[in-house]
Amino acid sequence: MLNNIKAEKKPKSAFRQAEVSNRIFYAVMLIFPIAQFLVFYVGVNINSILLAFKEYQFEAGGVYTFAGFENFKKLFLNLSTMSYAPTLLKNSLILYFCGLCVGVPMALFFSYYIYKKSPCSKIFKVILFLPSIISSIVMVIIFRYFAERAVPELARILFGKEIRGLLENTDTIFGTLIFYNLFINFGGNVLLYTGAMAAIDESSVEAARLDGAGYFREFFFITIPQVFPTIATFLVVGIAGIFVNEMNLYAFFGPNAEGSVSTIGYMLFRDTLSGTVSNYPYLSAFGLVLTIISLPLVIGVKVGLDYASRAILE
């Protein structure tokens, strides 16, 4: 009888030890991401928010003092008098909607082509993903050479027409930059969409085939609904990045990009990079205003997409 009781206690004791060991493991593994979140998100953002209500005092020995809403007043005054402010907003929105209306559908179609293991799909996968693993500066140099020299030379050889470089011509520079940004982000989007499609249950695909569904019907009625959560994530991230996307302008032009092609993200990035300690409160106020504008948009889009995702999957 005593031996049976001891035998029953051993499994319980071993189970408790394993449970304690698992909890210790989880706690240790969570230390780094939690510390990273507290330092690089909470700490940085709290400091930025507080900095928006301060000003730098040279006379007081170079310290920040409370300034109330002075930085916000200065910001709104500058925006109201800045002649190219509407252009910055327009360019930022055009960049987002081009990515939404052109980049997302094309990425989905190419991902589906690769997912179905169509001819040359592996080669396309490598080619499309190459820009994502090559240095952005290298890609900018290659693309600049192509746009400035190769295209005019091709136009001369094929059509006998002399044209300016695509980045030199004011009529083509913005469209060229839009094309580059769609191209440079295309491979990463394709890779993620392809990964999501690879997780689709084959039984639903086989059932659609038995019902006579072709590739197009399978794409729109099976594949898209199954990967919609991934699509929704990209849409939410895109909304959050409207005001911070600098369109790789700094890599192309440094701090000297023309106002006609600049975005809000580029202006904020350029001014932060070249700013001094006295400019940081103003820039923090600018960032806080952009956050206040984009936050309800992001939340609204996320709630709507979550509702749509549940409706589609049901």
Provide the fold topology.
Elements: H1 2-51, E1 54-57, E2 63-66, H2 70-81, H3 85-115, H4 121-133, H5 136-159, H6 173-198, H7 202-210, H8 215-240, H9 249-253, H10 264-274, H11 280-313
Antiparallel strand pairs: 1-2
Structural commentary:
The chain is mostly helical and 314 residues long. 77% of the residues lie in helices and 3% in strands. A two-stranded antiparallel sheet has the order 1-2. Strand 1 and strand 2 form a beta hairpin. Helix 2 packs across helix 11, helix 4 packs across helix 6 and helix 8 runs antiparallel to helix 11. It is globular and about 75 Å long. The mean pLDDT is 85.
List keywords for this structure.
314 residues, mainly alpha, two-stranded antiparallel ribbon, 11 helices, 2 strands, 77% helix, globular
